[in-house]
Design a protein that fits this description.
Elements lengths: L5 E11 L4 E9 L2 E6 L4 E6 L4 E4 L1 E3 L7 E2 L2 E2 L4 H10 L2 E8 L7 H12 L6 E7 L5 H4 L2 H6 L4 E5 L9 H13 L3 E5 L3 H13 L8 H4 L2 H18 L2 E4 L5 H12 L4 E5 L1 H5 L24 H12 L5 E2 L8 H4 L19 H10 L6 H15 L16 E11 L18 E11 L2 E5 L2 E2 L15
Parallel strand pairs: 1-4, 1-5, 6-9, 9-10, 10-11, 11-12, 12-13, 13-14, 14-15
Antiparallel strand pairs: 1-2, 2-3, 5-16, 7-8, 16-17, 17-18, 18-19
Helix pairs in contact: 5-8, 8-9, 9-11
Bound molecules: N-(aminocarbonyl)-beta-alanine and zinc ion (2 copies).
């Protein structure tokens, strides 16, 4: 047995895993958790008394530096991953989105070059499939070989939306390769019709955004996707679920034993569609797709997280400068969609989930850390276990934090949680044995983050 002191010991904390809660010390050697026990000696010891010690959180849905026409989402790899670390997230999965006609591998190389030397935490990538020609589908196995086993398929957005036959072809190939589809489930023809009709009636403000994308059609799209996935034999995860109509579809599919999974995000759990009614175009801040919904939808989402119908809480972090949101004055459909959230997920779900009695601490860890890592194939992530990566968060359940833009670290000039103060915030975030953030100060290395070659098990 190695009697040398550990490089780092996290002592006296209450360890919370997806299955258990217990008090122990964690000994770290190099980048790995080497021991979990009592009375461990370290070259450096952090006393975590009074804190929860949980796995570094895993956010499998973010959009850093995402191009949209001539604008780009406002967080780059550096600012976005630094903000993530402040909030206790140590791994993210973003997207490679090839340009029309661009070979996927070339798009991947460009995306990796952007992240290299900039990312502060580890990162993986999904691939967006908006072209399902035989030529593109023939390259999916190569993507899986290089560590990208998950593919996003869209049922919305001009230029991205796939028809049912295209969805089926993509799902069939995904099934054949044992990969996982991540689905944006909305009904684009209906959205396009409603947007045209609303604008023609002079209904141009942000308050019309949710009216153009009805919950019932998000449910319909999910049901249709589930049928296509069942025929194709594919595993699929429905992304950014906003409403009860989708929860019903997933619950029914899972009850029949289908490999259908669901992801929701804090914005759908904490905010409701009333925010779109705010005066002075303020509703534009909250424009995302699918839109925020009603209180009943929110209640259905919390219940579905607690009863296992949904497996993943991620952020769909996609911030835009206010000046870019302002492009939609006079036409709500031109407001770039997406909201900031990469830093606030763990704390919002602790405050409104665990503290409010909607989730147990173990469920919180499972939904934000362990299950996303398993489902999306991040080896060594999302667990406190000997041999796992030493990605660890020391979470102070009493620390109070106002979620104002001023206090948060994303590169964006507003917060969607401006009026909310949470109780529960990370005291320290550790990635592969290295302390990145301590007491609100970033002390990590820009460029510490590595590309994660993901593998589904
Ligand atoms: O409005 C959203 N959600 N923007 C990000 C892109 C997406 O659909 O995930
Ligand atoms: Zn989407
Ligand atoms: Zn997204």
């Amino acid at each position: 047995m190695n009697m040398e002191p550990f490089d780092l010991v996290i002592a006296n904390g209450q360890i919370v895993t997806a299955a258990d809660t217990y008090t122990a010390d964690i000994g770290v050697r190099g980048e790995k958790i080497a021991c979990i026990g009592r009375g461990l000696r370290g070259r450096r010891t952090i006393d975590a008394s009074g804190c929860l010690v949980i796995p570094g959180a895993v956010d499998v849905h973010v959009h850093l530096q995402m191009p949209l026409g001539d604008i780009t989402s406002s967080d780059d790899w550096r600012s976005g991953t630094m903000a993530a670390a402040h909030g206790g997230t140590t791994s993210i999965v973003d997207f490679v989105d090839p340009l029309p006609g661009q070979p996927p591998l070339q798009a991947l190389e460009e995306r990796l070059a952007e992240a290299e030397g900039q990312a502060c935490i580890d990162y993986g990538l999904h691939m967006v499939l908006s072209d399902v020609s035989g030529k593109t589908l023939a390259q999916l196995s190569r993507m899986i070989d290089v560590g990208i086993p998950t593919f996003k398929l869209f049922m919305a957005y001009e230029g991205k939306c796939l028809t049912d036959d295209q969805l089926y072809l993509a799902l069939r190939e995904i099934a054949r390769l044992g990969a996982l589809a991540l689905i944006h489930a909305e009904n684009y023809p209906i959205i396009r019709l409603f947007v045209r009709e609303l604008l023609a009636e002079g209904k141009t403000e942000p308050r019309w955004h949710p009216r153009s994308r009805p919950a019932i059609m998000e449910g319909e799209a999910t049901g249709r996707l589930i049928a296509l996935a069942e025929m194709a034999g594919a595993h699929a995860c429905i992304a950014h679920i906003s409403c009860a109509a989708v929860v019903c579809q997933i619950r029914a599919a899972r009850a029949r034993g289908l490999p259908i999974y669901g992801e929701t995000c804090p914005q759908y759990l904490v905010l409701t569609q009333d925010v779109y009614e705010r005066p002075d175009f303020e509703g534009a801040r909250y424009v995302c797709s699918p839109p925020l919904r009603a209180e009943e939808d929110q209640a259905a989402l919390w219940k579905a997280l607690a009863d296992g119908t949904l497996q993943v809480i991620s952020t769909d972090h996609c911030p835009w400068w206010w000046q870019d949101k302002e492009r939609g004055r006079g036409d709500f459909s031109r407001i770039p969609g997406g909201v900031p959230g990469i830093e606030t997920r763990l704390s919002l779900t602790y405050h409104f989930g665990v503290r409010a009695g909607r989730l147990t601490p173990q469920q919180w860890v499972n939904l934000c850390c362990t299950r996303p890592a398993e489902l999306f194939g991040l080896p060594g992530k999302g667990k406190i276990q000997v041999g796992a990566d030493a990605d660890i968060v020391i979470f102070d359940p009493e620390r109070v934090m106002p979620l104002t833009a001023e206090r948060l670290h994303s590169q964006v000039d507003y917060s969607i949680y401006e009026d909310i103060t949470v109780r529960g915030w990370p005291r320290a975030t550790i990635s592969r044995g290295r302390v990145l953030v301590e007491d609100g100060r970033f002390i990590g290395l820009v460029g510490h983050g590595r590309f994660i070659r993901r593998r589904l098990v």
